[in-house]
Amino acid sequence: MKELIVATKNSGKAAEFREMFSKYTIEVKSLLDFDDPVNDIEETGTSFEENAAIKSEAICSKFNVPVLADDSGLVIDALNGEPGVYSARYAGEEKDDQKNIEKVMAKLKDVPENDRTARFICAIAVSRPDKETFIKVGKCEGSIALEERGNHGFGYDPIFIPNGSNRTLAEHTPEEKNSISHRKNAILQVEGWLKAQS
Ligand SMILES: O=c1nc[nH]c2c1ncn2[C@H]1C[C@H](O)[C@@H](COP(=O)(O)OP(=O)(O)OP(=O)(O)O)O1
Ligand SMILES: [Mg+2]
Fold first, then answer.
1. What are the residue numbers of the active site?
2. Which ligand minimizes its atom distance to the CA of 56?
3. Which ligand is nearest to the CA of 89?
4. Sign of the alpha-carbon torsion through 72, 85, 125, 33
5. pTM of the predicted protein model
6. CATH number at residue 141
7. Domain range holding 161?
8. Exposed end of the chain (fewer CB within 10 Å): N or C?
9. Which family is this protein grouped under (predicted)?
10. 21 Cα–ligand 2 center, Å
C-alpha cells in the first residue's frame, strides 16, 4: 500500500482523508504522525489555493515524496466572505473551534435565516519532487444555523447546514459528510492522480 503524506496538523481533516482514501488503498500519514514534530508552516497566502500550495510545497521539499495539502474554510456572505482564509485563527492564534463559532454567531446575531448563506471551500494542492504543483477547489453550499447543534466532525460543522438538509454537518455521520463535503468535492478532482498512486 502506497503511503501519502497529507500536510496537515488538523486531526479532523486527517480522519476524513483516511476514510476517503481507504478505497484507493492509500495509507495517509499526517504531520501528527511524525515522531519529530514538524514546524508549523506560516499560511501567508491571500487565497485558499495559495495557502494549500505553500503547505504542500514546504512538506514536499522537506521529505522529497508526494504530498497533498488542504487549505479550507468557511465563507459567509453576510460577513463579506469572512472568516475565509482566516477561518482557523478567526478568534485568535490559538485556533479554538468553539471561540471561532462564538465569534461567527455573535456577528450574525441579527441576521435572519434567509440571509445566512455560506459555503465551505477546500483547496487541495498536490506537490511531487521536480514536478509542478497542481491545485483543485471543492465547495459545499449551505447556510449558518440559528444555533449550534451536533457532535460529529470538527471546526464549524455544528453551525453549518448544507443545502438540501435541515441538519448541521455535525449532525451528519462521517460517511454522510464525506459524501457531500467541500473536501470530497476537491478530492474527486484529484481522483485520477490518486488512482495512479494506489
Ligand atoms: O469540513 C470542515 N468542517 C468544519 N470546519 C472546517 C472544515 N474544513 C475547514 N474547516 C475550518 C476549520 C478551520 O477553522 C479552518 C481550516 O483552516 P486550515 O488552515 O485549512 O486548517 P488547520 O489550520 O486547521 O490545519 P492545517 O493548516 O494544518 O491543515 O476551516
Ligand atoms: Mg492552517
1. 71
2. 1
3. 1
4. negative
5. 0.97
6. 3.90.950.10
7. 2-197
8. N
9. Belongs to the HAM1 NTPase family.
10. 21
